[in-house]
Write a structure and sequence with these properties.
alpha/beta, 7-stranded mixed beta sheet, 7 strands
Length: 203
Amino acid sequence: WPAAVRLVQELQTPTWRQRLRASRACVELGSGTGAVGLAASVLGAANVVLTDLPELLETCERNAARNAARAAGTVTCAPLAWGEADAAEPAGDLVLMSDCVNSIYGVGIGRRLATTLGRMLRKAPSPRDAVGLWAQTFRGEATAEREFLRSCADLGLALRELPARAPPELAATSRGVYATPTDADDLAEQAATCRVFEVRVAR
């Protein structure tokens, strides 16, 4: 997904590399292939948890095993359904999300994601210092993105948009995903249209 490339590119900046190395627990929500969480591990995060629905974890587990030699620390995979209170839900002082908000995932997806994110950040050792990074391909105001933004505000979460990146800045990251230059450049163009937000506990 283009948003995953955009988020990985953000993690490669000095500011977020430092944050990755300092994090106690880096959690990726809706991991899918696990690309973002695995990149976080390679970039220095010592403890990464890839999460998704139980039936989707096999891909994460397979990719984590394939990339184990490159990981800076431990990478584990855990089932997680958004919105549901779960005693086994991991606490994360750095929570990563890319293209998790889409109406195709069903009604209420934005609210469930915001609920899980807020709960995770507040469970961190220092909630005020915990942060979420959300990369998203915006598909229209009347869709799930608006629900997520509204739910974050209702739950006391503040969002700050990070500066946009131009396609040339994203090309190297996308080439790590696609072998052919044409596909990599196309992905970089798409990734440049994605928006990235920092999410923190405001109250």
